[in-house]
Amino acid sequence: MNGGKDPGAVDPKDKEMDDEIYEDELYTEESDIVLTASRIFSMVARYRGHEVIETRTTDEYVPLGERTRIANEAGADFFVSFHANAATTENAHGIETLYHPDSVEGKKIARFVQNRLIQVSAGKDRGIKSRPGLWVLRKTNMPAILVELGFITNIAEERMLNEDWYLGFLANAVLRGLEDYTVRR
Fold first, then answer.
1. Fold classified for 12-184
2. Residue 17: what pLDDT?
């Protein structure tokens, strides 16, 4: 998840908005959505007895190398990166979970998490996908996943991703997927 000087994905139509004409429209930055989702995830995980190490707790930019260093030095069991997708077309929609192709356990976790996400959402199942070039997936010493919670460039998903209750469902689904993996491995 991004933050601070790097808001991550931004709905392109939002950049062109004239505040007087579109004052009821959403202005969505990925960093806001994923910070809320990760806060909910952390709170629920702690409540259920899990230890959580957050690499970003405020709207600040934390370099990718620093994020993986924190996780690696802590000896974390898993690394989860929350994201919101964006596309050049507003027709793109759905949820997907990414993993590194060399991580057998990362792929298993991705499958459990994706299954839970689709169970609780109305999102299209875009499946699990191998991504070798993503820093947080290739530089962690533990199984890592990157969860794309939906598209901020799709108006229906953008509206849902701006609802805390919906992000709560998604964050809980990610946690349940990790717990499913832990129980079944």
1. Aminopeptidase (3.40.630)
2. 45
Q: Is the pTM of this model over 0.85?
A: yes
Kindly list the domain boundaries of the chain, sorted by start residue.
12-184
Q: How far is Cα 70 from Cα 64, in angstroms, rounded to an integer? A: 10
Tell me the per-residue pLDDT of 44-82, one tens digit each, with 9 for 90 and over: 999 999 999 999 999 899 999 999 999 999 999 999 999
